[in-house]
Structure formats: structure tokens, C-alpha cells
Design a protein that fits this description.
Layout lengths: L1 H12 L3 E7 L2 E6 L2 H6 L1 H5 L2 E6 L10 E6 L7 E10 L2 H7 L17 E9 L11 E5 L8 E5 L3 E3 L6 H5 L2 H14 L16 H5 L1
Antiparallel strand pairs: 1-2, 2-5, 3-4, 5-6, 5-8, 6-7, 7-9
């Protein structure tokens, strides 16, 4: 019975991951069933995860999928099981060795925007957040199975958005919103000229 209890808690905290796939503009993590979790119980307890790792600067061919330690949420943070993560220019530059990750972010795991499910919370965070579908921006590390973020750095995904759609929102749309409504103090009925409308931020604006 004790072993069954531990497994139940493990199932509530972390889902077993089957594969890590990629597509144009996004990365998707596919998750297994309860049977997969039972078959991979040791993996759950080991607190490891798979991630797209940059072992050295170069083209797409340098990326490798490796088992790395899974992060754990500190005070005020949430652990997110990543379901989808977008691909940005910063990720490409980081892979080329031209964009160092900010302090506190994984130096060799790209990914700055994500969508996923909260599976664990740190101290000071309401347990009711567990199970929420959230999206947000991180300093890096989103091209992995799990990441930690401050609870105020994630938002609940609207029901009308899929995982993939939600993962493509934070970087471009938050930047556009900040540029127009905060930095430029745009107001209703005013007009604005948007340059580089072919870019992600330009399209979002």
C-alpha cells in the first residue's frame, strides 16, 4: 500500500514522457498514459527529464536530446510540464553561440516561451494552481519536459487556445502589447504606423 501511495503522488506531480518532437516554429512534448507511468516509475522518482541540449555552437545538427536533472520549484515558483514551446530568433542565436542565456536560465537549453500544465508548486504558492493550463516567457530552458517559473510570470491559457497556439503567444504578443500600450501610451481612436509588419511582433501589433 505504501508503494501505491508513492506512485499516486508521483502521478500527480509528474507525467511520464514518451517522446520529444518538433515542428516548424514549435516543439511538442508528447505524454504517455498511466500504463506508461507505471512502466517508467523509476524515471519519475529520479527527477530527471529530457531536453534539447546545445553541446556546442553550430547549426541545427548540434542539438541533442539528453537526460538532465529536472528543476524543482523554489519559493514563489511553479513547476510546469511543458506541452508546447515556440522557436524564436533568440533560440537560434543561442544555438550559434551568439546569445548567452540570462543569469539563472539554463546556459545550454534553449526555449523562451512555453505552454504547459502546473504539476508542482513551491512554498508560498496556492496548491490550487496545480493542474492549471498556463503559458509564459522564461529566460531559457523551455525546450525541455519541465521548467520552473515564478507564479506571476505565467498566465492561465484561455479555453479557446490550443497548446500550440498558446505557446506562440507570449513573446510576440506581450512585446507588442508593451510597446503599444505601455511604452508608446497608445490610446483608443489613435493611429500608429507599424514597421516590419512581416515579423512576429509586427503581426501581433
Amino acid at each position: 500500500m505504501a508503494g501505491s501511495g508513492r506512485l499516486s503522488r508521483a502521478r500527480a506531480r509528474i507525467n511520464s514522457v514518451v517522446r520529444l518532437g518538433a515542428g516548424p516554429g514549435f516543439t511538442i512534448v508528447a505524454y504517455g498514459s498511466d500504463r506508461d507511468l507505471l512502466d517508467n516509475g523509476l524515471r519519475v522518482h529520479s527527477r530527471t527529464m529530457r531536453a534539447a541540449v546545445i553541446p556546442c555552437p553550430g547549426g541545427p545538427e548540434v542539438l541533442v536530446i539528453r537526460d538532465v536533472p529536472a528543476p524543482e520549484p523554489s519559493s514563489g515558483e511553479v513547476l510546469v510540464r511543458v506541452v508546447a514551446s515556440a522557436l524564436n530568433r533568440a533560440d537560434l542565436l543561442q544555438r550559434l553561440g551568439k546569445y548567452p542565456a540570462p543569469p539563472g536560465a539554463p546556459a545550454n537549453i534553449p526555449g523562451i516561451e512555453f505552454a504547459g500544465e502546473v504539476v508542482e508548486v513551491g512554498s508560498g504558492v496556492l496548491p490550487s494552481r496545480i493542474g492549471q493550463r498556463v503559458f509564459g516567457i522564461a529566460g531559457g530552458g523551455a525546450h525541455s519536459e519541465f521548467l520552473v517559473a515564478h507564479e506571476r510570470a505565467v498566465a492561465v491559457i484561455p479555453e479557446c487556445l490550443s497548446w500550440i497556439e498558446a505557446a506562440a503567444v507570449p513573446e510576440a504578443f506581450v512585446t507588442a502589447h508593451d510597446a503599444l500600450w505601455v511604452q508608446a501610451a497608445l490610446r483608443p481612436c489613435e493611429r500608429v504606423l507599424i514597421h516590419a509588419v512581416g515579423s512576429g511582433v509586427g503581426l501581433a501589433a
